[in-house]
Design brief:
With 316 residues, this protein is mainly alpha-helical. The protein has 17 helices and 6 strands. A two-stranded antiparallel sheet has the order 1-2. A two-stranded antiparallel sheet has the order 3-4. Helix 2 runs antiparallel to helix 4, helix 7 packs across helix 9 and helix 9 crosses helix 12. The chain is elongated and about 80 Å long.
Length: 316
């Protein structure tokens, strides 16, 4: 979703055997695919470090195009995993950064007690090198996103629903990718959410000292829809998008046609209500008041031009 053909985004899936585990908890049972399974899993006693091994295998394959442990059958592959021998020299590896090789080696360390942790991997030198590249373009994306973030006004659930609808259906791949890039650069700890401290760090990088911390607090309170104290990626999209780019004639006309279920060339209160909320509760009076202001003849239906005015009022 929201990807162009040249976007190299890795997507993880198939968490059927995943589970939460407590601190210092040992897991049992043999699960996984031959190429990716950690050697300690084959022994039936392991902890969270088994995932570091599996991710190390994926990293190795992304860098070299080949699995670190190979064979003509699952049995041969498993035997290679048990031995734990792999190469990071010669061939394609001569073109790979030394820091990337070092990370592979540390993630594929046979002894899990000596294997790098997830936190250590995330703070590895290779990631710092990669993140330092193209800093000018990165700052431009963060600047644009934070400018929109500073203008954000959550309004109420009607405004949020209208904004969410337009983002889901009409945000371009390029716009979404730029917001994702900015989010990932601000998300220093890789948690998938932006803390107050990370937002302040981003503000300071872009605006210097030309901001007030109370502004960040106020925006965080408005944008944090589920009150968990951080900004999730979906909340970031809602707050940091450029609303003018999504309120074009073409996009609003397409949205109008989507709302106009009965093809009457007009949209009623119930059509908007059902499309945005279904059976969910919301401030119906607010939506009725906004519609009454744009419905010049007060017949309960609004035309395309009146719909545009409605959306501008909700989203501007």
């Amino acid at each position: 979703m929201f990807e162009s053909n040249d976007a190299l985004n890795v997507k993880l899936l198939d968490f059927g055997n995943s589970r939460k585990m407590g601190e210092n908890e040992a897991l049992q049972g043999v699960y996984g695919t031959a190429y990716y399974v950690a050697p300690e899993v084959l022994g039936g006693q392991y902890d969270e470090k088994c995932d570091i091994w599996s991710i190390g295998v994926i990293l190795y394959m992304l860098l070299s195009g080949n699995p670190p442990f190979n064979g003509s059958s699952d049995l041969q592959i498993i035997e290679a995993v048990k031995k734990g021998d792999f190469e990071v020299e010669g061939g394609v590896w001569d073109q790979i950064q030394p820091s990337a090789k070092d990370l592979c080696i540390k993630m594929l360390t046979h002894d899990p007690t000596q294997r790098i942790s997830a936190a250590q991997a995330l703070n590895h030198e290779w990631f710092r090198e990669v993140m330092s590249h193209d800093t000018t373009a990165g700052k431009e994306k963060i600047h644009a996103a934070l400018d929109n973030f500073r203008k954000f006004n959550s309004g109420n659930r009607v405004k949020q629903a209208a904004l969410g609808f337009m983002i889901q259906h009409f945000m371009s791949q390029k716009e979404a990718q730029e917001l994702e890039d900015a989010f990932n650069q601000l998300d220093r700890d890789g948690s998938g959410a932006l803390s107050k401290e990370e937002l302040i760090e981003g503000y300071r990088m872009i605006y210097g000292d030309n901001f007030n911390e109370s502004e960040v607090d106020a925006l965080l309170n408005m944008a944090d829809e589920n009150d968990d104290g951080v900004i999730s990626y979906s909340e970031w999209l809602m707050t940091a998008m450029n609303r003018q780019k999504i309120l074009t004639h073409e996009k609003l006309e397409a949205a109008f046609q989507g709302f106009d279920i009965d093809h009457s060339n007009s949209v009623s209160f119930n059509e908007i209500k059902n499309f945005l909320f279904g059976a969910k509760t919301f401030d119906e009076q607010y939506l009725m008041d906004v519609m009454s202001r744009v419905d010049a003849d007060h017949d309960g239906d609004i035309t395309l031009e009146q719909f545009k005015t409605l959306m501008f009022e909700l989203l501007s």
